[in-house]
Design a protein that fits this description.
Number of strands: 7
Strand content: 25-35%
Distance between the termini: 24 Å
Shape: globular
Order of helices and strands: EEEEHEHEEH
Structural class: alpha+beta
Strand order of the largest sheet: 1-7-5
Radius of gyration: 13 Å
């Protein structure tokens, strides 16, 4: 795997906010609607645990990308 990237916690006025599965899924859908091609992304850590119903919330979203180009497409969608 070429790279590891973490989308840090949502911040509201400097306060860190835990995100739940619904907020996480809404974020993934919004990002997916921006990306125009298929990319391969692996969820790890708290993100993966939430997707498997093993955890209720997380402070950040952690992904691993096999290809730098996939990571770049994903990061461009966040801008």
């Amino acid at each position: 795997m070429e790279s590891l990237h973490s989308i840090k916690s949502l911040r509201f006025g400097g306060i860190r906010k835990m995100i739940d599965i619904q907020e996480q899924e809404e974020m993934f859908i919004a990002i997916g609607n921006i990306i125009s091609r298929k990319i391969q992304v692996y969820a790890i850590g708290g993100t993966a645990m939430m997707l498997r119903s093993l955890k209720n919330s997380t402070l950040d979203v952690d992904f691993v990308f096999d290809k730098t180009m996939d990571r770049d497409v994903f990061m461009d969608a966040l801008k």
